[in-house]
Specification:
The protein is mainly beta and 75 residues long. Helix content is 15%, strand content 47%. Pfam families: KhtT_N.
Length: 75
């Protein structure tokens, strides 16, 4: 994929996207499960255990994506 994004197939589950944030103690992983559910894992330390895990529906993931990409507009 792009620089700093690593993709791994998870047979029977979906795909995992590891996003390098430029620091060894911070990263984000997104698991896109079959069926549209996304799991967002936030690692704020060098530990292998995530600091936070959030499950998002496809609609929720689109909203977060729109805000992060600055394409969200209030009516």
């Amino acid at each position: 994929m792009g620089k700093g994004v690593h993709v791994q197939d998870l047979p029977g589950v979906g795909k995992r996207y590891d996003i390098d944030l430029g620091r060894p103690d911070q990263r984000i992983s997104v698991i896109m499960r079959s069926g549209g559910v996304r799991d967002l894992y936030v690692f704020a330390t060098a530990s292998a255990e995530p600091t936070a895990v959030i499950e998002l529906t496809e609609e929720q993931a689109r909203k977060v994506s729109a805000v992060l990409s600055a394409t969200f507009f209030e009516a």
